[in-house]
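To whoever picks this up:

The nightly regression suite flagged Transcriptional attenuator, LytR family as changed. Nothing in the input moved, so I suspect the structure step. Input below, exactly as stored in the fixture:
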Amino acid sequence: MGAIVAGKDDDRAGVAGDAEPPGAPGPGDTAEPGGTAEPGDIAEPAHIPEPRDIPEPGDTVEPREIPEPGATPGAAGPSEPGDVPEVAGPSEPGAKPGPPDRRARIRRRTRRVLFGALILLCTGALLIAGTGYWAYEHYTGRVQRIPHAFPTDVPADALPPPSKSGSQTFLLVGLDSRSDLPTTGNDAEAPEWKPGAQRSDTMMLVHLPADHKHAYVVSLPRDSWVNIPGHGMAKLNAAFSWGGPPLLIDTVQRLTKVRIDHLAVIDWSGFRELTDAVGGVDITVDRTVSRRNGPGGVWTAGPHHMDGADALDYVRERYGLPNGDLDRTHRQQNFLRAVLAKTLSGGTVTNPLKLKRTLDQVTSVVSVDDRLSDGALRNLVWDLRSVRASDMAFMNTPVAGFDSIGKQSVVLLDANGGAELWEAMRNDTMAGFVATHSLDTLGSRVS
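Regenerated output under the current build:
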């Protein structure tokens, strides 16, 4: 039942290929016109107003710290979309969560980040094709970091080796916070990153081959029944609630045997704001399905123009869907691609004010691990400048079926099918894997 989902050619979002590379002229210069435009290429605006808050030479921007999460289990809330399941306790004998090492207070105004898996691709294109080198430096330099995101006490035999080919794998985490205060990005107001306060509602592995010509996005169902180190069997999304980024990374690496090179975290409320910044997205619902929030209690079949609030309800809904959590991951993938296409549309790129507003919004809601340096981020954005939506493949982790364990509805992963997928990711042979496996194409019509 493992569904593999590929991007369609009719959803292309072009990226200008003649933009200035790193080391190009500085602020005030404009890119020279390129050659004959390819279908989907973005028109380059002549100028974009310089943001008022660009640091002056010599200024320093103090990075804000997000405290290292502890591993204390958090109590599960009501059975709402995104809730962490209630777990009686660790399944492994003697396993006890330890107290957090420290809890640093979060400062409000800090450096911002430019990365969010698919959002990275569209934003990188915007920076290079639409704004000029000064903005490229400005936005990639305002980076917020998550300190101590990776586990430090993992046995050597449980730590996957780095890629030999030069490929990279990112873990993208979409948070559903139990607090009304934002917990990621430059507007974070929650005073502490407390165990149990955030739930990893969405988890995706984004694999970038060594040539950086494609991207492969693999969704990990939040209800996957997996072994969480120190806790035993539980739903995958409990790992982040119990132990933050380190425990989630450790869990995913042990599950897949794939080395995670970097982490990108975004609160879903950030996607709501980004959707509004680009003027909403258009998504077609192929059949009428129930809707827990919103007018009428249903999503009617047909096209919908969704603002941020509608889009957030759409991607978080899982009740009433035939395949539950799997259908929801399809919705999330489709929504991300719709945001990508809308962000790369001419109406955004050729409008300086709208472009700046979009870039400001993207860079204000995403956080990455502190291993991703400014220089590495700039190089990555540059390398990905020519990647289009049609160069990305979306897929779900292979699934064997569904079950109820205690009072929890869980997803049972397909160990054999997953082994093939993870081997291809480890060996940087994802192109061959996609070509030789049955594809469930993700079009624009996703319920």
